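Everyone, describe these structure tokens:
***
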Amino acid sequence: MNTPPPPARHPGPPPGRRPGWRPGAALTEGARSWRYGRWATLLTTALAVAAVALPAVLDSSAVSAAVTGERAWVAAGGRVLVVSNPQAGLSRQVCEGLNGVDGVQAAFAATREDPAPGTAAAPGRRLPVATVTAGAARFLGLAPTGDGAIVSAHATGTTGAGPWLSFDADTAPAAPDPNGRPHTPLPTRPLPIAAVTDLAPLGDAYDYGVLLPVPATGTADDCFVRADAAHWHTLRDNLAGLFGRTDPTRPTLVRPRLADGAFARDYAAEYHHRPTAALPYAAGAGVGLLWLLLRWLTRSRDGLYQTLGAGPRTRMLIALGEWSCTLLVAAPAGAALALGATALLGLPADVAFPFTARACVLSLATATAVAATWFLLPRPDPLALVKDR
């Protein structure tokens, strides 16, 4: 009877070589090293949390100030262009048609009527009146008003508190226009008040008064155009040409509703050149440099790992596990701390959230890039360091 041959034995490691570590075991050892790192872990993690939170709060504050200022500027008429030709007038039809032009958010034609009439609610007081085309409601952020009047919030004492507006029949007739353009007669019947709103974005000439709807025929004093930021300069340079050729002695003028000179604030430049944008990089580099310093001070530990069979790749995985734990704690803790601080400061959420995420990604990515240079730097043999001890 033949005896079966013994099973083949798996060859052991080559002579002089210890069994290697599994990648999972190396990462777990890194996490354990982070957990029991005491002051080194506490210092690195706390600084990483601060590197996320502090730049996020400072940058969000800077961006919020610029955004709030720009929104107030836009609300006051910052992106409004006023086209005017007091002598020849402007075509109401052309002005109203600008609502279909790319980059135009809203446009309407307006004419100040003279003299200012009185009202039935306050016959002794004069109410500035302007006739406007239908685009005024869209310009002011209102629903279509039809044939109703739009009253300034400052003029309700003159118009009365009721839903109707009646002009004083004893108002003096309009004087002839010096340029020969006809006046629009005021309505003799009561008009419904369609909306009460702030007319300050139109300027002092139209504020404290009432806007009356008229068809888009004939001519007007001014054409108000709200442009988006991308088409602002193009529209400013070309709006006059859209109204056709004019007499050189009576040119069509285009001007910004608010000052747009050398002393005006450039909100886009303030945003792109804000110094706080670089804070995540600086904070992240600081965390990475601290980690390098701590690795250098504890470099003899690599020798201990080498005596346990951990080669360069294994020691890299151990360091990766340790660093990953730092990131996993610093990212949510830093973001939560930053969002809590921005909420206490009253910063807009649409600014705080994206810039907190930006600071989190940039600071931790920079810290990781700096920390990774540990594996590129020349270092003495870890076993020699253990022997020196």
